[in-house]
Design a protein that fits this description.
Blueprint: E1 11-30, E2 33-45, E3 52-63, E4 68-77, E5 84-93, E6 98-107, E7 119-127, E8 130-139
Antiparallel strand pairs: 1-2, 1-8, 2-3, 3-4, 4-5, 5-6, 6-7, 7-8
Length: about 140
């Protein structure tokens, strides 16, 4: 294996902020862990569009005994001809409400087509039934 392989250092570019209200359905203790289905609705803002856009979706959460949760997030942002689908997977610490996720996007919008190849990281926090997450696009 070559020892001098140059790997570009990534930069994080602010991409989007979501603020959503959560509605939790407790499924209960399953063989995989404690499962919750969390639907949400709120808004997304971004330097890539004007104003707020609707954001809605569901997060499938399985909590383990060590206080971490696996996240599987499905989000739809906007309406009309600039709808963006967002898929995130990650981890949450239930004891402090912090969330880390990796995110990819899909859209049919010509103007936002660059998002189809974008990868982002999300850093967020849950407080009193509201989730706020900042997404940062990974740029090399």
């Amino acid at each position: 294996m070559p020892a001098d392989v140059s790997i570009p250092m990534p930069n994080l570019e602010p991409m989007m902020r979501l603020v959503v209200d959560l509605s939790v359905t407790d499924v209960g203790l399953t063989p995989a862990g404690h499962r919750r289905e969390v639907s949400f609705v709120g808004t997304a803002t971004s330097p890539h569009w004007d104003g707020e856009r609707s954001a809605r979706g569901v997060d499938h959460i399985v909590a383990s005994a060590d206080g971490t949760s696996r996240l599987d997030v499905h989000t739809v942002i906007g309406t009309g001809d600039e709808v963006v689908a967002y898929r995130g997977t990650g981890r949450a610490r239930t004891d402090v409400g912090s969330v880390l996720e990796g995110v990819v996007f899909e859209t049919a919008s010509e103007r936002l087509a660059w998002m189809n190849s974008a990868v982002a990281v999300g850093v967020g926090r849950v407080r009193s039934g509201t989730f706020v997450v900042e997404l940062f696009r990974i740029v090399t």
